Amino acid sequence: MGWRAALGIGCCLLLLFYVRDHPALEAPRQFAVDTAAVIYRVAAAPKSAFIGLGDFFQTHSALRADKARLEQENLVLKGQTQKLAAVLAENGRYRALLRSAETLEREVMVAEIIAMTAAPSRHELVIDKGSADAVYVGQPLLGADGLMGQVIRVGQYSSQALLITDATHAVPVQVLRSGVRGLAEGTGALNRLVVRHIAATTDIKEGDTLVTSGLGGLFPAGYPVATITTIIKQPGSSFSQVIAVPTASLDRGRHVMLAIDLMSAGSQ
Amino acid sequence: MIAERGSWVIVGSILIALLLVAIPVPVSWREYTPDWPLLFLFYWVLALPNRVGVLSACVVGILTDLLDGSPAGATAIGAVMAVLVILVSYQRIRQFDGLKQGLVMALLISLVHLIEQRLETFLGWQHSSTAFLMPAAVSFLFWVPVRNCLRFFRRYYEVQ
Hints:
The complex is a heterodimer. By secondary structure, chain A is α+β, with helices and mostly antiparallel strands. Chain A has a domain at 105-267: Thrombin, subunit H (Beta Barrel), CATH 2.40.10. In chain A, 32% of the residues lie in helices and 29% in strands. In chain A, a hairpin with a 6-residue loop joins strand 10 (224-232) and strand 11 (239-246). By secondary structure, chain B is an all-alpha fold. The N and C termini of chain B lie close together (11 Å). The longest helix of chain B has 25 residues, at 98-122. Chain B is built from 6 helices and no strands. The interface between A and B is large, with 39 and 47 residues.
């Protein structure tokens, strides 16, 4: 019993402190990610079947109402896109005038959320695209309304992503209105980010939108991240406490978008 | 020497425990789900200490880690230590009534989570609260149903 326990603990310590990031174990790590995804998929099967059944038995009138709503939405979005193309072209010319580099062009790939991982202290998603679809570690994850997180583990056919609200995550942001830069850190609560190192005299207001600043080179610039809800200024303190709520709905929806970096896609 | 049989019941129950972990629940409920793999593992150690021991604990711990994205081995170390405690004192624990056994199991599960949390903090993860101990408290409520259910299957399939 004693030697077995020593063996078990020894193996675990080896795994934890030496083998964890060893490059030779890439294949088993990918296999583990994929296996976990299969277990999550099987566990979620009754729920997906239930949702599928609901979709199947949707009434004709409900579907027609849906279609009408989507057509309207599509029209509005198309109109906005036309304007966007003009604005983008204009922006490009201004940038050329200022001799600054043109921003990177990004495309997206849609992935389905399989599950949120089980550990209560962590905010991670399992998604159904992996290295077979050219997903890489560090790839930004976008929702319909803003930045959601980044990929941290990649399997062959699935991967795991860390959300921006996880207590270990931080993203470089700037205030859309004034351009003030900061760092939005996760807190472990799904509706709360903290922006650190904002001096008390900085031009920042409640209701300001935070977008990614593109510093750090990981996240593309200009995606909405959060809206500032509370600013606490304490007399005597040189920094103010800034709390924000993420714009993306992190615990809803079945699909996410993975940003594809067109400039470096070949090298990844 | 009794012939060992019914390994598939043990392995199958652990797989079911892993599936129970992966069942989707609303985010705010996640802390209030019992720690199924550890509960199931502790039952088998208590019932068949000659078959299910520290190496099984190591395997179950690593599987749990891989499933919930913890660094592989963090839960396993705690599970090995907790199972050692059961192996040393299984004759005594068997004499306890369900409530007392549940308390012992909850204590052991909180020990496992405490070790896991310490190791993860050491590796750079951050835990902001003591909420990680909640599954241990919930597991206390689930010990008696889990024990009775697994005992039924153990006797039905004559696992020994």
